[in-house]
Specification:
about 140 residues; four-stranded antiparallel β-sheet; mainly beta; globular
């Protein structure tokens, strides 16, 4: 078993422009996996526009709750470099669904998010089960 192949990729937010004070969110069901990396990619922005709403919450049903250990501290962006924020989550102590929420502050900002689920109970064996369009294994 090559552990790097024992994963599933889930696109949470397609790359998009998030308007000023607009909020985008997406959910992922983590059943069958024991670890997740949730990544939020943000484009460049002026340092005065510090994003304040950037959360991962969890749920077993429809009501999502924020736990203090999921809180991410944001940093001031700049006009030359984008930002990457990642949550590394042991799913054994989490609820089955995760939700990422992002709100652009001050001006529109490009954003995308994805989840990489790993330590699967049953190893995915096809591109579809790994959440990818196509794959090459050599």
């Amino acid at each position: 078993m090559i552990h790097a192949q024992n994963v599933k990729y889930v696109r949470l937010l397609n790359p998009q422009s998030v308007g000023t004070s607009a909020t985008v969110s997406a959910t992922v069901n983590c059943v069958g996996f024991r670890y997740a990396e949730v990544t939020l990619e943000l484009g460049t922005q002026t340092a005065s526009n510090v994003d304040t709403t950037m959360t991962v919450t969890e749920s077993d049903g429809t009501t999502y709750v924020t736990n203090s250990d999921l809180t991410m501290t944001t940093v001031a962006p700049d006009t030359s470099n984008g930002q990457t924020y990642t949550w590394y989550l042991d799913l054994r102590k989490r609820k089955k669904n995760l939700k990422i929420t992002y709100e652009a502050v001050g001006a529109a900002r490009l954003a995308a998010a994805s989840a990489r689920l790993s330590r699967a109970e049953q190893a995915p064996t096809t591109a579809a089960l790994r959440g990818v369009t196509a794959q090459v294994i050599v």
